[in-house]
Amino acid sequence: MQRYHLTIAGGGATYTPGIVNSILNASDVLPLRKLVLLDTDAERVATMGGFIRLLLKEKAPTVELLVTTDRRQAFTGMDFLFAQIRSGGLPMRALDEQIPLRHGVVGQETCGPGGFAFALRSIPDMLAIGEDVRRYAPNAWILNYSNPAAILADAWHKRFPELKSLFICDMPIVIELLVAATLGQRHGELAFEYVGLNHFGWWRHIWDPQGQDLLPQLRAHLLSDKPLTLFEDEHVNADWIPTFERLRKSMGLFPEFLSNTYLQYYLFGEEMVGHEDPHYTRANRVMDTREKEVFAECRRCIAAGSVADSFLSAGVHGDFIVDHARAILTNRPFRTTVNVPNRGLVAGLPEDAIVEVHGQVTAHGVEAFGVGPLPHFQRALMVQQNAYEQLTVEAALEGSYAKALQALTLNRTVPSADVAKALLDDLLEANRDYWPPLR
Ligand code: G6P
Ligand code: MN
């Protein structure tokens, strides 16, 4: 049986143990020959590598492990690249969240000015990865979780149209699982229709196996304050629950659709700012919790010489990315949400906009499902957000201050061009070591 060389870019991330466990659970279709943890942070990835080495020793002793900061080594001979990079790390995420809040604007890692700053750091890094994939492993499949996903997909698809890639996000699947559990249904038996951009979309239908649309039932459930059925996942924690609870509010205001949770930042900006402490944001919380706990656990296991009793195990996040690889390898269709160039899928949006819709993944890649014309409200929001996304890519690639300013001014979270300029100048200062120069 063929065995595969899989590389994880951002291999030092806290998500790595979950992803590797999911890969090992799929060894019937995705047996590994070689696993590479690639990271720019040698120390972090060495600790993670120590944990993964023990995991492989106990569960898959024939797999060769390479821990490296060198892309040529990591990519040569590679079949799959799972990309989950975070350019600038969590300390820069904290600034992405805190700087906008100081201006009274939403502070979030992927939405608004924070997402913009993150994009300007990540685009050059993603494109450097793409150049080296093209050089060393042009036939590899790239499955990407890195953020901001739509903006990175835009830059990527324009530069590397020939590479085999899928840009995915786990928020839609998490929401769909939550919806299914709340309705007392099995997720696999429901057929969802979703349309939007990444972290910016809506479910229009949720069909049961008899073809009945369950959206009205879900609406009634949410609006009558009945409890949501949460499930075991890294998202089900104190920081995320208010976000899921806020689905009731968007449902009440816009009852035709179930909104993606991330729309809270665009629709309820003041409320979101009001809940935040500009000195201690989600990034700080992640650094004080997940980051510390995962690395402490890695070190504990390394000292004990075993991962046998470790809590670092497979979950929705790891299983979801592996399900895409499984579909590619088995040619068994997997229905999922993907971020792909529009090309007529959504009427009224540019052909090259990266849209997030359902599609079917097989060995031939993704076949995305078009959704026909949209109501003014959704279409206009998407056109505006997509223009922001494309201007962000152009600002990064052309080094254009003018386009950066236009992008931020267009973003719905930013109230005026004056605020956009003040924000841009502060973000520029904070990102001097990361952004391409803007003129
Ligand atoms: C969801 C989103 C990801 C995002 C993550 C942040 O999974 O789909 O794109 O990176 O949430 O979660 P965190 O726990 O780091 O705030
Ligand atoms: Mn996401």
TrEMBL record:
Start and end residues of each Glycosyl hydrolase family 4 C-terminal domain: 194-414
Family annotation (Pfam families): Glyco_hydro_4, Glyco_hydro_4C
Note accompanying the cofactor annotation: Binds 1 NAD(+) per subunit.
Swiss-Prot/TrEMBL keywords: Glycosidase, Hydrolase, Manganese, Metal-binding, NAD
InterPro entries: Glyco_hydro_4, Glyco_hydro_4_C, Lactate_DH/Glyco_Ohase_4_C, NAD(P)-bd_dom_sf
Cofactor field: NAD(+)
SUPFAM superfamilies per the UniProt record, alphabetical: LDH C-terminal domain-like, NAD(P)-binding Rossmann-fold domains
Family assignment from sequence similarity: Belongs to the glycosyl hydrolase 4 family.
Record-given protein name: 6-phospho-alpha-glucosidase
Native organism: Pseudaeromonas paramecii
